[in-house]
Specification:
4-stranded antiparallel beta sheet; 52% strand; 243 residues; mainly beta
Length: 243
């Protein structure tokens, strides 16, 4: 007679965002004894012969199901199934933007706070021109290039999808393609989360910033009474460079 064999033929994906799980298994004999255990707990004897539907909530971690059977001759067989539960959506952080003569290169990364979960599967990237939707992309790398013209005001938004099926929040990045100019320009402004301004030097010469201030004015624009006045640290912006 053949030795008993038991196999799990259906269960959750290895990375799963569901805290519930059910399983189907098959054996090459009619078991006289069937028992199972989750996560090294005590084995439970069951009269179910082909399925397990556990009415419990599993933790966000690695989980293991073990199944043991015996045939009518007392011979044993066992198998196991491992899966990882992750319900945390991945968070994306935009990196620096690089310009060439007629191309823009943007990059991003998964935030460290969500990097320990299931691996990312792909990124969903949407592109807008002058505020209007232009195109969408599925990107598997963390870098994206696009041809540009000086007439374009471009913005992008991106979110990540991980192997467990979690979908992150959209993250926005606005990029202003600047025309030729002979003075320092504000190229990007951040007002959500960390406040910042980015300066661009479109000239052919390096430019020294000294005794510059960032001022916040009330809505009525009383230019003599800013309610916030921050000094910009001295720095040199290289030709065609950002600060």
């Amino acid at each position: 007679l053949n030795l008993p064999v038991v196999e799990i033929i259906s269960g959750p994906a290895y990375y799963s965002s569901s805290t519930e799980a059910s399983f189907l298994f098959t054996a090459n004999c009619v078991p006289s004894l069937f028992k199972y255990s989750f996560n090294n707990e005590d084995f439970q004897v069951s009269d179910l012969s082909e399925s397990i539907s556990e009415g419990r909530v599993f933790n966000e971690e690695s989980n293991i199901l073990e199944i043991k059977i015996k045939d009518r001759l007392g011979r044993s067989a066992s198998t196991s199934f491992e899966w990882i539960i992750d319900t945390t959506p991945p968070e994306v952080i935009f990196g620096d933007t690089t310009f060439s003569e007629n191309e823009i290169l943007i990059n991003w990364e998964i935030a460290s706070s969500t990097r320990d979960g299931s691996p990312f599967k792909y990124f969903e990237l949407e592109e807008f021109i002058d505020g209007a939707f232009f195109d969408s992309f599925i990107v598997e790398a963390n870098i994206f290039s696009r041809a540009i013209s000086t007439q374009d005001n471009m913005s992008f938004r991106i979110r990540a999808v991980d192997m467990a099926g979690n979908i992150g929040e959209w993250v926005d990045k606005v990029i202003i393609i600047l025309p030729e100019s002979n003075h320092i320009l504000i190229s990007e402004v951040g007002i959500i989360g960390t406040e910042f301004i980015e300066l661009y030097n479109p000239t052919e010469e390096d430019f020294l910033i000294s005794s510059w201030y960032l001022a916040y004015y009330p809505a009525e624009r009383d230019w003599y009474n800013p309610y916030r006045l921050l000094e910009i640290r001295p720095a040199e912006i290289e030709s065609r460079g950002f600060f």
